[in-house]
# Entry
Amino acid sequence: MPTKNINFPISKSQFINFTKCSNSFYLHNQNLIEKTNTPHSGSLEWPEFINLCMSYFEHSVIIPRSLSKDSQKKETQEALENKHTIFGGYFESEEYASYIECLSPDITREGWILYDFRPVSTAKLDIIRSLYFQKRLLESLGVIISDVKLIRINSEYQMTDNLLDRDAFLITESLSEKLIKESGRFEEVWNLFLAYQTNHIFPSVDEVYPTCKSPKSCYQPDVCFQESQSYEIFDLREGHELPKKLYHMGIKTFEEIPDEELNQIQKIQKNAHVSQNTHFDSNQMSVFLEGTSETVCFLDFESINPTIPIFPNTRPFQHIPFLFSLHIWNPISDELRHFTYLHPPEEGDPREKVLKELTLLIPKNTTIFSFNDFFEKQIISDLIKIFPEHSEFWNAIHLNFKDLALPFKKFWIYSAKQKGKASLKEILPAFSETNHVGLSIREGQDANYQYLRLLKKQVTQEEKIRVLEDLVSYCKMDTFGLFVLYKMIKENLH
Ligand code: SF4
# Structure
């Protein structure tokens, strides 16, 4: 692909891309990547969050995004001259451009305070980098920046009644010191960025400019690593930079990888791929299943974790279960029973009802399998803190959990069909005819988003019925999948 000139002005998000991968920067800069907008729960909460942040400021001007860029620039300039707080101002130089969340006159000294509003609990490096970009842009346009601040969420905050206490929920943090502390590192990246603008190559694999450690999580790996989709080496577990190194050595398949390059887990993987036989460590699996009861349960929760608390006695980001699926299998009679509870969204806080239903359904002295059981245990123990009257139930069952993700994470079981992945969705079809294909909801994040839509009444009645059914089907498939895997394990042990 011939390398074209860089398009100016460069946006803030393009700069952030560059700090991670110069090739990704180029792809975005040349509009070679289709922008996708996956709906997520954060987008449902954003208007409320931004309104809370904006409520701190008086005499403000909002620059409408519906205007043309030229008009946005003009209105921003006018607000700047009138010393108003500006929300969504658009600033552009010949080289760079950015929307600024908030710029507010500093009443204590000369200059402006540059704000960012983010529904997060810590100021991660990307946030500081993006503020660094904006500060540079504003200063190049003659705007004096006296301080750089972030309005973010206090994750320790607990909503005690139905009213959100804005000042306890939000934290305003000055990032000026962090910017100074990181300035050396940022200047280095900036100089690299400047050099790239005049002397770029695409794709760049020579490590002068930042590139990915592994193309596995990239949206466009084939551009930098030709035909990478058909190269087995990119499925290598715990590979980090190794697949990239192997690619440059001309190695495409597991068979070609020298054993000395591989750790224990990768050797298991190589053998399974070369022989096309499933790896099954009977010794480890026997130890893993020691103490398992005859009848067993399979449990899965779906939860929301709203940024802005919805129910009393909850914190930001806290997981609130609204649905569970429970399969109970008696191997003697081969009877598999299914139970589920989905809390009606119009009834508000689901926690007490979810816990009560669980106490009625989960038998004591029975092993409970979950996939990544830390989550299920955390959900129940959080519920018990609020409803201690059910402590006896928790005390009776909390040692009964077993994590069915563990054998796959540890590579006690591995099939080449997993292609190095260890999520339930990838494992299930590798060992059975069962899979998540055909389900409308296929990810926990989507289940979270859909239930939040119901709570915020952003669905029609017709849609509501469909979403509720989809949620139950999705959760049921997860516990049925665990049952299928458990049966497969038992059969292999005999
Ligand atoms: S494959 Fe890697 S180097 Fe290429 S664009 Fe993706 S992240 Fe960047």
